[in-house]
Amino acid sequence: MAEMIADQENIHPSLGLSKAQREGIADLLQVVLADEMTLYVKLRKYHWNVIGPQFQSLHELFEEQYEALAETIDEVAERSRSYGAYAIGTMDEFAKHARLSEHPGNHPDARQMVKNLAEDHEAMVRHLRTDANRASEEFEDIGGEDFLTALLQDHQEMAWMLRTFLMGHAVHE
Q1: Sign of the C-alpha dihedral computed for residues 29, 135, 99 and 68 taken in this order
Q2: Which of 69, 87, 102, 170 has the most crowded Cβ, counting Cβ within 10 A?
């Protein structure tokens, strides 16, 4: 559960949401933040380690995507704060909350890197679809739903960019 900001000054966000709703959406955002960080780290690793004839184009594409995710990560953390919660911020917390997984010690070839990243972005789309529905239905937060839907659209576009590299080959082998 998200650690809510202490009641030292008795200041609570007045967002038209109950404390339970704010805590629920903040918890959901902690998981999204952890997923975004996991994907960010994977993109950095692949950016540093890609080799082969497509090095330059993939090196640049991975950089473009991790830079976009760096902005997203900041937005998600700040959004969590706007509900009155502290944002998680350690590797241990990210690992405990993330739905995406890392593969330590694994150094795939360039094509497999692209496939892995496309699959992670697609997983983010699926998770964010569920998260947006929860924000709307369970927490009655249309602003949270809209925020998560925008993230979903960003990941859908990033997945498409990666899948175009794999065209002509089976994406889900």
Answers
A1: negative
A2: 69
Residue with tokens 């998600």: 76
CA distances from 14 to 19, 43, 143 (A): 10, 37, 14
Q: Which candidate, 58, 62, 87, 90, places its Cα nearest to that of 75?
A: 87
Neighbours of 70 (CB within 10 A): 15
Domains in the chain (CATH in brackets) are 19-165 (1.20.1260.10)
Query: pTM above the 0.70 mark?
Result: yes
Q: What is the mean pLDDT of each run of 10 residues along the chain (173 residues)?
A: 54 79 95 98 97 93 97 97 93 96 91 97 98 96 97 98 80 43
Give the span between the Cα atoms of 68 and 151, in whole angstroms. 11
**For 86, which DSSP code?**
P
